[in-house]
Amino acid sequence: MTVVTLGETMALLSTPAWGRVTGGSALPVGIGGAESNVAIGLARLGVPATWISRVGDDAFGALVTREIRGEGVRVLAAADPAAPTGLMVKEMRGGKPWRVRYYRRGSAASRLSPSDIEASVVEQADVVHLTGITAALGPGPRKTLDHVIGLARAAGTLVSFDVNHRATLWPPAEAGPVLARLAAAADVVFAGPAEAALLLGRDLPGEPSFELGEDLARELAKTGPRTVVVKLGALGSVALHGGEVHRAEAVPVTVVDPVGAGDAFVAGYLCGLVSGEPVPGCLRLGNAAGAAVCRVPGDWEGLPARDELGATEPVEVVR
């Protein structure tokens, strides 16, 4: 049971807890990227994971590959001598994350192309996990996603797709049609309510609820994916599979830093999927992993090991 991910991971700088950067300020350096977050989450849960990307031939690129490899993930990332590693800056206010800024235009990962993909890696995987963030990086990464989906389809590898729309990278009018096309080609789709509405070309009809999540999942399933999972944040999650809707309430938690919780949810869900868990079990694992990440600062540092996932609430099945 192996999962392959593909996408950009950046160096991450965090401003001081009080937010203001002054001369001599120390900015802690870490890493962050949705796809590597998922890969690390899977590795910690005992699922072999591979991360494919490009990084700059620079100190940040070395940091990114070293940290991800150190978490037990197989890293296939070329060092690009002509483009830098992407950068993200997490601005703090009152000791808590307030805003994230990206510096990724012209980054090494924006130069991803089909030639970066070793076909056998995708063909031998049980699941290949992709996100809409990669599609936002430019035409080369979009072609790479199409190439990977084609390889997976031919080999019978399941395709997982997290919409992960980032309005700071591309506006909804541009992103919507591309993300909808990619979602339609996937087997499993993960989306928040606003992202699901974006794929369907409509405005979000109301506040997040289990009923709204179910309605959106049913509409999205008509476009192609076999399973649609709607992440409802503090409420929990909804999955539609085989005509049945499954609801799972969130694990109660005191939120310290919510960044990365969605990626942790995906890692937990995919862990259950490749382990043969039914959909309710996948949702429970996803909710528990997402809650664990919210408890501590950082995008991925709080990703749990399997034995750290506590008991969770039962899943309700709605026929």
TrEMBL record:
It holds the Pfam family PfkB. The keyword Kinase applies. GO terms for molecular function: kinase activity. Coiled coil: none annotated. Keywords: Kinase, Transferase. InterPro entries: Carb_kinase_PfkB-like, Carboh/pur_kinase_PfkB_CS, PfkB_dom, Ribokinase-like. Residues 3-304 form the Carbohydrate kinase PfkB domain. SUPFAM superfamilies: Ribokinase-like. Belongs to the carbohydrate kinase PfkB family. This is Sugar kinase. It comes from Amycolatopsis thermalba.
